[in-house]
Amino acid sequence: MATLVEVEDLRKEFGNVRALAGVSFCVQAGEWIAIMGPSGSGKTTLINILGGLDMPTSGKAVVDAVDVARLDEAGLTRFRAQKIGFIFQQFHLVPYLTAVENVMLAQYFHSTTDEKEAREALERVGLGDRIEHLPGALSGGEQQRVAVARALINHPKLILADEPTGNLDEANEETVIQLFRELHGEGRTILMVTHDPSIGRLADRRIEFAHGKLKQILPSFKPEPVR
Amino acid sequence: MFWRLLWKLLRASSGRLTVAILALVSCAMVVSALLNLEFDIERKLTQEFRMLGANVLISPGNAAQATGIGPGEPMSESDVSGALQDLEDPAVVASAPFLYVVERVRDTPVVVAGTKLEELPKLEPAWRIDGAWTSPQDHLNSCVIGRNVARQFQLLPGGLLNLTYLGKSAQLTVAGILDAGGTEDNQVFVQLAKAQDLAGLNGQISLAQLSVRGTTKSISQYSARLAARLPAYDVRPIRQVTEAESDLLNRIRLLVVSMVVLILVLTALCVLATMAALAMERRQDVGLMKALGGSIERIVALFMAEVGVLGAAGGFVGAILGIVLSRWMGQRVFGTAISSRWEIFPLTIALMVAVALAGALPLRMLGKVKPAMIFRGE
Predict the structure, then answer these.
(1) What SS3 state is found at B110?
(2) pLDDT in tens, A179-189
(3) CB–CB of B73/B64 below 8 Å?
(4) Among residues B207, B237, B267, which one ends one of the domains?
(5) Residue B58: pLDDT band by 50, 70, 90 thresholds?
(6) Does any CB of chain B come closer than 8 Å to the CB of residue A1?
(7) Residue B134 per-residue DSSP state
(8) What is the DSSP string of B251-266?
(9) Do A97 and B8 lie within an 8 Å CB cutoff?
(10) How far B37 CA sits from the closest chain A CA (Å)?
(11) Mean pLDDT of all residues in chain A?
């Protein structure tokens, strides 16, 4: 498998606060990585940098042969549109757009819209009958499934999910996790921040953070640290 | 998708945008009405100014001395009327020759002005008359007397006035009593032919007065053309009148333009306040759009288009209302409706779009939103 993500001595500081303190690791294409650790350990900061939402203070963050740290504002915009699919804990759907329009919004900023394809993406996540609903009329699980459909619509190289089940009840969590299993089965590369060890164990590897540093990388179902 | 998004944006913020569009419609209505007034004001005011009376005078003057006709000596009626007929300009609202003679009424000297009585209402619309300008029974033997003359000789409309001049006498019927508010109140107005007959000055006049519609420039140009046809006489605009008219017109124009600018600025500020609040509301949406790969240009273009649509819609509705308002204002101020100028429509819409875009400056600040900061809740 080819390396899709390469992080080398990545550092990020917010004033005096050190969010990431020299993190290094690689992710192969098609891997499902769970990023775990306590609050404030730098998980979301890492996801934001890899997704081009934030810039590192120093170090390298290469995704699909593009060093995010070297991109300007326009380059970051193109990078996000073409290579990344985001799934957030808070869903972040546009409240005045219907489910299908939320999916089409990602198409619009990527290239051109295709409503048929957007509808198919929603049908695939089991929302064929909720296509014209506004987010306010959808349950949390349904909203997150819309967010998954939106993240997948442009066929991104990397899916970045920040606590995607954090706001869901058990039944909806199971539905969303099942979607991630399917995506992984299709060979998608997923980096997922999660607090839930049971979800973390579904990933190929778990990367654990503490105080901005990479604590350990664990393969799934293998309790021994690899380094 | 662009128009779909635009429509959704407009619907989503309909409450706030209603405030902005009301401001734009109100502004467009007043601006359109004022511009319509401004475009038509010259025509309207020059019509109104004709209420002030004659503004061009033909007299023997200095030019006449070269021809041997001294100042105060009579001019040829046919020369003057011929020149006026030759030029035949529709801007001439009224013209009247005058022959002034001092005659006697019951041994009291009175200034008698021989003129075309039927022209006086058009020449001096501000003069008020009790009775009529001429008697329908006896046109030539009619007269109009000033109110001081009427008081002095205790005459009423329908009464008889005896004029004597160098042994000749004439009995005239008082058709009306004039209230001009000036020296004319001391005069007796008779038909020109009657005055010429009494004074033995057939075919001669003392001066001619004209009421000419137009700007100071056009009135001066007409006077110059007339002067070229009457080289023996002095033809000149009455400067106090024409310059006062021009000055008033310029002041009103300045007032209208100042009001338009002030209203545009105030509306831009109103839109600015609304858009600043809207920008705060939309930070989350913009953060998300940027996270999804939306470029600053595309996102800001979307919001600017939204504002542009508001400006165009406000301008269109306001321009229609403004035309109605200008017609009403015309009726109230000038007594007749202001003519609608259709070029006001695109001008008002363009102004409103410009005002709305100027007021949408805060939306441009959304380009600086950092998605990560928004998602962190900063």
Answers:
(1) strand
(2) 888 888 888 89
(3) yes
(4) B237
(5) very high
(6) no
(7) S
(8) HHHHHHHHHHHHHHHH
(9) yes
(10) 43
(11) 87
pLDDT at B66: 45
My answer on whether B230 and B253 are in the same domain is no
B95 and B11 within one domain: no
Q: Are B344 and B322 in contact (CB under 8 A)?
A: yes
CA A201 to chain B, closest CA, distance in angstroms equals 27
Residue B288 and residue A92: Cβ atoms within 8 Å?
A: yes
Q: Do B289 and A105 touch (CB under 8 A)?
A: yes
Kindly state the tokens that stand for B215. 């700007």
- Asked if A163 has any chain B CB less than 8 Å from its own CB, the reply is no
Q: Which of A8, A5, A21 is nearest to A210 (CA)?
A: A21
Confidence at residue B324, expressed as pLDDT on a 0 to 100 scale: 84
Nearest to B292 by CA among A40, A20, A87: A87
Q: Which helix or strand (DSSP H or E) is residue A131 part of?
A: none
Quote the CA–CA distance of A15 and B194 in Å, as a whole number. 106
Q: What are phi and psi of B149, to 5 degrees?
A: -65, -45
CB contact under 8 A, B290 and A108: no
Instruction: Look at residue B271 and tell me whether its pLDDT is greater than 60.
Output: yes
Task: Check if A54 contacts B (Cβ < 8 Å).
Answer: yes
Q: Which residues lie across from B115 on neighbouring strands?
A: B191
Q: Are A46 and A212 in contact (CB under 8 A)?
A: no
The answer to whether the beta carbons of residues B366 and B279 sit under 8 Å apart is yes
Same domain, B106 and B194: yes
Using CA atoms, how far apart are residues B97 and B191, in angstroms rounded to an integer?
10
| Residues B221, B258 within the same domain | no
- With CA atoms as reference, report the closest residue to B143 among B166, B121, B113: B113
Tokens 């004033």 belong to A15
Count structural domains, chain B.
Answer: 2
Q: What DSSP string describes B265-310?
A: HHHHHHHHHHHHHHHHHHHHHHHHHHHTT--HHHHHHHHHHHHHHH
Q: State the Cα–Cα distance between residues A142 and A126, nearest whole angstrom.
A: 9
pLDDT at residue A1 in the model: 66
Same domain (yes/no): B61, B200: yes
Q: Domain residues for B10?
A: 2-47+246-376
| Cα-only R_g, chain A | 17
The answer on B225 and B88 residing in a single domain is: yes
Question: How many whole angstroms from its chain centre is CA B298?
Answer: 49
B9 and B148 share one domain: no
How far apart CA B37 and CA B339 sit, in angstroms, is 9
Are B271 and B368 contained in the same domain?
A: yes
CA B227-B85-B59 angle, 5° bins: 40
| CB contact set of A174 (below 8 Å; sequence gap of 6+) | none
- From CA B58, how far away is CA B56, in angstroms rounded? 7
Which three-class secondary structure state does DSSP give residue B320? Answer: helix
Q: SS3 for A11?
A: strand
What digits encode the pLDDT tens for the residues B203-222? 999 999 999 887 778 888 88
